Every structure is written in structure tokens, then in C-alpha cells.
């Protein structure tokens, strides 16, 4: 039954003694997806996702047409078409609010997260309403990003972050150049084989069903000022300001100052909804309307992630 929740996140309880999780999800799939698209997120509790294989099958059943990740920011384990481990990101560092693959030519409309092993502490996958964030950001800032979009620069090297071979799924430089040219990504190769890329994407996107405008980007998460200060200082000293593994700016190339990035993160914080993970939880999210984050944690944590229903921002 539907339990009381927030406007953004509603909760469904599976029956006390359900059939297999995948069979139950097959029966209730349409309702779960509808709730996610109407509210932004739906949390299903009480499923028996006792092992990784069951969680992978459950996620695959919910997401619909899979989205294959290209040019990710951290390594993942691949379990099937559009089904992955969560990103291998340091447990003590947060992954700030963002919309998955908002920098890519094709992004998932739906995401699903299945909890195989909950962390000992922390580690919530928190949510924030992109419409509410857009409404509460300063009008001048929104107009600037709506007019120019946002610019993402990346520097792939073998010492920090993911390699370009892993990001693009190939060791062929010509294939990378072809992919980037087809998708509006600028490339530059250093003499040592390091790759630099730059791309400009929309920062505000309309929901094709409702026409509502949503703040849809990774401007704050991938900016240098969101990095831990000691990490930023080390990377800048080691590789120079242009050699950071990633950074963001306004689409016209104007750098972002710390105050602007902090302001975006503060507005996200105002609208953040979090629910601690329990073993067997399944969280389904409308990735267009709803940003998500991953909070620091202690202990083991295994979350299976699914990306589905591709759309072009």
C-alpha cells in the first residue's frame, strides 16, 4: 500500500510474504514507474533482494530500455545492459547532487537503485527536486545558464580518475575522436597521449510530458570548488589549473567562483530528502526531475544501479 511520504518521495511496502522479488516487480512495474514519474521518486520496501543476482534482475526489470554509460567519471562494474555497480568513489567523500549523464547526448529518464548491503552508517542516496531548485536559485544565475548552458572540461590521464580507454570503452584514439565529433565534444591530445575534452550542454531542460522547466546538470558536482580542499590543492599543484580531471564553467567560458558553487549546493541542501538504506530496498527515480547524491559512509555498501529509458536533453 502507499504510505505517507514527501511530495518528492513516496514509499510502497511489498506484502509481508511476497513471491520472488522479480515476479512481484513484474506485476507492479507499471505502477512503480508511474509513481516515480509523478512524484520524482518511489521507494519499495520489503522485497527479498538477498543477493546481487536477484538485485540485478530486479533493476533490469524496472528500468525498461537500457542506457549504456559512456564517458563516466568513476569506474563501475557492469552486470548487464544498463545495469552497474554504484561508482567506485571514495567512501569518505560525498557525490554531490547531480542528474545522471546530464553531460551526455543521451541520458536516462529512469534510474533504479537496489540495496544488497546497506552501509554501517551514512551512505544515503538522497534526492532533490530539480524544479524546486530552479525556482529558488537567483533569477540572474538561472537566466545566465539558460542562455549559455554549462561547459564541462575534462583531462584524462593515467594517474587520476578514470582513463579515456575505460571512459569510452576503446583503446582506439580515432574511435574516440569519431564519437566526440558526432556528439559535439571537442578533443585535444597531448604528446604523451593524455586526452582533453570540452563540451557545452543545456543547464535547464523541459519535461517533454508536462512542459515544466527543470534544473538539469552537474554544474556544482563536477566543479573544482566542490572538491575537498586538500584534493583540489594537490591536483592543481601536480597538474596545473588546466589539468584538473574535471571542471565546469558557464557555457560562455566564464569560470565559476566558490560563492556561486556553494550557493547552488546550498539550494540543493534546502530541498534534500533522504531515507537510510535498508537491505532489499529498491529506489526508482525520475532522473529528469530529480537530482540524487551519495553521502559519505562507513562499512560495506553495495547498491546496484540501473539506467533506463533514454532521452535527449
TrEMBL record:
An example Gene Ontology molecular-function term: dioxygenase activity
Q: Which residues form a coiled coil?
A: none
Instruction: Identify the Pfam families for this entry.
Output: TauD
Question: Could you tell me which residue ranges the TauD/TfdA-like domain spans?
Answer: 24-303
- According to the UniProt entry, where is the signal peptide? none
For this protein, the record's InterPro entries field holds: AlphaKG_dependent_hydroxylases, TauD-like_sf, TauD/TfdA-like
Is Transmembrane helix one of the keywords?
no
Q: Which UniProt keywords apply?
A: Antibiotic biosynthesis, Dioxygenase, Iron, Oxidoreductase
Q: List, separated by semicolons, the cofactors it needs.
A: Fe(2+)
Q: Which SUPFAM superfamilies match?
A: Clavaminate synthase-like
Give me any GO biological process, just one. antibiotic biosynthetic process
UniProt protein name: TauD/TfdA family dioxygenase
